[in-house]
Every structure is written in C-alpha cells, then in structure tokens.
Amino acid sequence: MRLVVAFALVAAVTATTTGALTFREARTGVLQQSQDTVIERLRTQVTRLAPALVLPTGRDELRRFAAEVADAEPSGAWRVLVAYRGLEATSIADDPFEELTPALREAVGSRSATVFQRVNRADHTALVVGMSVAFTSSLSSSWPLSGLQVFLTVPQTTEQAYVDALVTAVERAAVPALALAVLLALLAARGVLRPVRALRHATRSIAEGRLDTRLAVDGSDELAELSHTFNETAAALEESVAELRGMEARARRFAADVSHELRTPLAAMSAVTDVLDEDAAGLDPDTATAVRLISEETVKLARLVDDLMEISRFDAGAAVLHLDEIDLAESLRRTLAARGWTDTVEARLPEPDALRGRVDPRRLDVVVANLVGNALRHGARPVRLSLHEGESQVEGRVESQGEGQGEGSGTGRRAVIEVLDSGPGIPDGVLPHVFERFYKSDAARSRTEGSGLGLAITEENVRMHGGTVRAANRPEGGAVFTVELPLRRDESALNEPTRDASTPDEPLREERA
C-alpha cells in the first residue's frame, strides 16, 4: 500500500507540474500570437487610413475613421475608439468602451509605442490596444505626434476556448497517468513483496518446527542475497537443533538407563538395611549409627531413583492419566492419613461428596503429598491444607499452567487446593525457580532431605490434568502453593499418553520382575 501511494503521489505531482508548465507555455503562445496578429493588423489599417484624415478634424470625421478601422476585421469583433484633442468617437454609436483603463490611456498619451492590456470583465476577457498616430515628411526624419489616438478592443473568446481546451486536455491526461502509476506500483510491489511474503511464510514455518524449510534463490539482488542468507541460517539452525535433540535424547536415555539399572541393587540394599535396622539395637553405638546412616541414605537414593524414573516418563511422553471420578476431599484425607499427617496438618475440606472431579487418584496423591511434605520440611507449622470450588488469586505469584490438555484452564468449574505454611516464606529471588528441577534455594547447602524433583513432578502432574499450580508468599507470612484443577465429567481425551511435540518419541525401559 505504501508503494502504491508513493507511486500515485509521484505521478500526481509529476502530472500536475508537467500540465501546469505545458498549460503556461501553450497559453502564452496562444495569447502572444493573437496579440501580435491584432497589433499588426491595426498598424496596417491605421497606416493605410490615416493619410486621408485631414487634421484638425471634427467628431464626424473621427467616427468615420473609427468605423473604417473597425472594418478591417470582417467578423465585426473589433470595437474602435478614436480620440483627438478632447474629441472622442467610437465605431459603434454610444459605445461606453468600458475596457479602456486610465492606465492604458495615460501610457498611450506619454509614449509613441503601441501598448496593449488584457482586461477581465465579468463575462469575458478582452485585449485592448492603444497607439498614437505620428506623421513625418520628406523634409524631416522625426515623427511628431499628431494628437490622434486610436484604441481597439477585441474579445478573446477564441483564445479562451483554446485555453479551456488545454485545461481539459491536462485534466484528462492526469487520470490515465495516475492509473498507469498505480499499475506500475502494483507490478513493482508484487515483484518486491513476493519474496518478502515467501520469507515470511518460511520464517513462520521455521517457528512451527519445520526446520527443513528453504527459499528459492532467484537473481542476484538484495532480496536474493537475503534469501540465501536465510537458507544458510536455517541450515545451521537445523543442524544445531538436531544436535541438541540428539544430546537431549541421549541424556534422557542415560537418566532412564541409570535409574533402571540402579533399582535392582537398591532393592537388595534396602532389604539388607531393613535387616540391619532390626539388629541395630544389639550393635555397638558406632556400628549402629553407621547402619542407621546407611539405611537413611539408601531410602533417599531409592526415592531419587523413583523420581528420576517418573521425570523420564514425562520427558519421553510416556506418562498416562488413569482418570476416575472421585470425591476429592476424601482423596486428600487418605493422602494425609497414609503419611501420618492427620494430626500434623490442619485440613479444611468440604463434606463428603460435596466436590467430585474426574482425576487420576495416584497423581493427585503425589501432588498433595509433595506440596504438604515441602511445607513441612521447608516451612513452619501450622501447615494448612484446604479444598474448595472456585478460583484463588494470589499476588506476586509464580504460575505453571497446563498446555494443550483439554479445555482452557481459565474457564469452567475448578477445584482449588491450597497448601499454606507459617514459615518465613520463599525469597523473591527463589520464587521464579521453585518448580525447576534440582533447584536449591540455599547454594551453600549441598544436601536436602528431598530429591529436588518433587515440585517439578507436581508441576508435570498438574499440567497433565490441564490445571495450574502457583507459588506465592502470603502477606501475613509464609508460603502458599495453589493448585487449580478443572472439574470435568467426561475427559476421555486425557486418557491418551501425553506427548512432547518438540522431541521425538523414544522407548522407555521399565522395571523387569
């Protein structure tokens, strides 16, 4: 559009300027030719008739002289005024001769040259010519003025018609010029914008993950060079992404393989540590302490391996939801009871069957257990667990939202689960990273009770349900984690395995009996 407008403006300015200059020159030529012809014929007529006029003369002779001068124009367009020492006579009786201006009369009286003036009246334009008549003799070379003055007015109807025709011609020429300019602009814009549009489509294709997109390179101009550069960039990007995907796949496979291979010896170690724990009371204090330490570390290592296996399933897109419609409040009560937190955690839950939803019971248990356990380990008591229907808005929050899982997370009925503690809260610098894997809020602390994957697993489980999880600090102190899950009656689409569109599927090794 900018090209079309620019071309149209240039064409309009060019056509207007050219038309104005052409009109000016043509008008000057037409008027110059007209006035030269009139002046020459007037001089010829006066030169022919003046010798027969006897001076001094009277009004009747002046009227006859004026009529004879006017007869030089067969069409009768001339009107003549003759003045001599205060006497005036016109070629047409009682002609007021309004076109004669005082300035022209004064100019004729003060010089011997022929003068002319164009006069505009309401309905026409006229050419007024004035001249003084001088006589000479063979005895003198001077031309003394006789006092006889001749004035002529001629309407310029024909010349005005020529000028109007020029204006019309200029106007008619401007329209085709503008149309041609717009056509040229469209052709130029098409030639320029076609490769630009192709580049836009190619860029969008690259953004959608089709890294093998390339542009056709035609010519050697700047656009062709841009297309060539784009192809080189796309090729380098494709190579880099392929390398990164390969590295990521190898890292996932390594984590899965290591976790799988560790589970068998860990099972044996757990069995041994269980036996040693039972006999620890009969051992000497140092040996008993070592046995208990080994037992604790074995449990932590087993938990870490289990969490790594779970994360590997998420990364490989092999995690599956097994949905069932359950009483959410009863599920939360069972989670607290199974871990001995019934007396430790203050639960504010609705009545039985007051809030039901279609969820994966096992994954909901993991979500609640991870959040409550995190509050007990890193926060301070009292810890409160609440469940209600609606939305919970907390300022200064960090949110993780499910993508592509059924309905949008911002609409419909939602179950809101909140876990609050009374500790110091989460530092502002840590808050954006709480759902990252293996993130430690205290860099100086090398060991923690958890695996560092609990909140990451919580986030993945909530996302699979199409929900959101947020972390924030309460104004009165302490941290609050809020989970929002959509309440649906029919979510068969969620029973399919989740896939990561950005990475290729890969086999995941499961534990063998």
Content-based structural category: alpha+beta
Low confidence ranges: 392-398, 403-410, 491-513
Strand order of the largest sheet: 7-9-11-13-12-10
Radius of gyration: 53 Å
Main beta-sheet annotation = 6 strands, mixed
Care to describe what's here?
The chain is of the alpha+beta class. It contains 9 helices and 13 strands. The strands form 3 sheets. The chain has a 6-stranded mixed β-sheet with strand order 7-9-11-13-12-10. It has a 5-stranded antiparallel β-sheet with strand order 2-1-5-4-3, with helices on both faces. A two-stranded antiparallel sheet has the order 6-8. Strand 3 and strand 4 form a beta hairpin. The longest helix has 58 residues, at 222-279. The radius of gyration is 53 Å and the shape is rod-shaped.
Task: From the structure above, extract its key features.
rod-shaped, 49% helix, disordered C terminus, six-stranded mixed sheet, 513 residues, five-stranded antiparallel sheet, alpha+beta, 13 strands
Write the layout of secondary structure elements.
Elements: H1 2-49, H2 59-70, E1 79-84, E2 87-90, H3 102-110, E3 115-120, E4 125-134, E5 145-155, H4 157-207, H5 222-279, H6 285-316, E6 324-327, H7 328-338, E7 345-348, E8 356-359, H8 361-378, E9 383-389, E10 398-401, E11 414-420, H9 454-464, E12 468-473, E13 479-486
Parallel strand pairs: 7-9
Antiparallel strand pairs: 1-2, 1-5, 3-4, 4-5, 6-8, 9-11, 10-12, 11-13, 12-13
Helix pairs in contact: 1-4, 4-5, 5-6, 6-9, 7-8, 8-9
Give a brief rundown of this model.
The chain has 513 residues and is an alpha+beta fold. It has helices spanning 2-49, 59-70, 102-110, 157-207, 222-279, 285-316, 328-338, 361-378, 454-464; strands spanning 79-84, 87-90, 115-120, 125-134, 145-155, 324-327, 345-348, 356-359, 383-389, 398-401, 414-420, 468-473, 479-486. The longest helix has 58 residues, at 222-279.
